[in-house]
Amino acid sequence: MILATESRNPSRRRPLAVALLVATLTWVGATGERAFAYTPDDPQVVRMVDRGLRFLEQNKPRDAGEQVLCAYAHFKVEHDESNPVVQTGLEAAKEFAVELPEMQKHHSNHNKSNYEVAVSVMLMCDVSPTRFRNQLASFQRHFNETQQPDGGYGYPGDDKGDVSQTQYAILAIWTLDRNGFKLDYNRLVKAMQWLLAVQDRKGPWPYQAIAPRSGGLVEQSGTSLSMALAGAASLLISGDALRLWGESMADQDTGIVGLPKAIKLYKEDVNEQRRKQVKVSTKPIFLAIDLMERWRKANPERLQGTLLWYFYTVYTTERYESFLEIARGQPADASPAWYNQGVTELMKLQSTESGGWEDRAHTSPEVSTAFAILFLIRSTQRSLGTGASATTIGGQGFSQDVSKAKLIKGKAVSQSPAKTVAGMLNLLEGDGADELDGKALDDRAVLATDPVERAAQLDRLERLVRGSKSWQARRVSARLLGTSDDLRVVPALIFALSDPDKVVRAYARDGLRFISRKFEGFGMPDEPTNAQLRQAQRKWREWYLTMKPGYVFLDG
Question: If 251 and its partner were Cys, which of 181, 222, 243, 247 is the partner (CB 3.0–4.6 Å)?
């Protein structure tokens, strides 16, 4: 089956500003039990993930590929390269890069190199695509050399393509694409053609298949829900690498709260011209997805969580559903029904003693636990930059317009000073904050004592110090945040250390010293060089991570 030629849709992907409102929805599971809506930030989910991480730290898998997968899951949550789980996985991944030539010479039909290399790509790109560039280049060559003539990937020496291995190969290629590696997109199109050709005529995909010579879909043996989701996800991931769905949030979001839309982080796209040389139609992809979805709905018994490859399927489901949202231009759903169902099932399956997931799978407890964690944190959605929560990945998703408040009658000057932070914020969030005279603001204004009101004020101040166009607003916000004596504002103050206004930088530096009780700070002078500034930010991040180990900095 050949993908028809079609012009790319010039209208880019879905709107960037999507409100992620957690509804009080419920769903009725297979057992008839009632489950409330969950998000990755739900305290119950966070506890499940934390217990899973501790299980990974206490149980080292013997298989090197499994070590890499466990490291990837751990790093995806805590972003701590120094953790022994991550260190073990990185060492295994580096060893794979060294052994690849010999692995390809002395392969067997049970060789798992495609899986091992794929998860190594994902881990190394997450940790540092620059530092591991040589290893990643070796992995890229591996996928170029092992792709079968018809476009799929499989066990070495076997002429049957493997949908599962093809999925992981495409996921690795997508990851390399997102990290600036030069790619041959004709290879990706060939893989898509193979996937479209081996889809079962009823909609699912098989584990292994040979494309029919007739050109039409035929009945395939060995179909399953896990492979149906894997095949469909592979098509969607390939389409994303080709930018068929437009530019992703990962391309456009900076991860910095309140940053004006006009400000973009420059990312060189070395593959832009290469993609333009490949013309692909979205029509056969959506036809294949629709056919699979009809099969999926017609076989509800396959969705009851009794799968032998349960945890593999759970992780594949999260990937498929996340890419499907993008391909269909749908707003990111913070708490979809499929996620709620998965959380409810995983809650029941998690071991009360070890904290890991050990049942209902052909995978080891460590791999099952890694897959469960990746599902619970919505790892694909994080990678895509969609629907990510403020607490888990540093606060993506806020727009430039932090408030609709206006200055009274459009005037910036007040006859009486704003003696409360609330009144001051209403002025600073207006359009003419830079025109405020000194009488409009009262240096003695203090944060509210009521915990709820105080938290709301800190939220507004953090957004202003990160994204306001007004130097006046950023100065006041940095000063007030620095006197809050609240650890939660530290990331915003670290960000403000690089503010173009030197007064803002000084307030941020002094605030960090006060909150941390490290009154000497980290040596940042009043007029720092760029190197001194970067060093201070790095030191303050390192200090904060000793206080909040799970925090993820996305703004530098």
Answer: 247
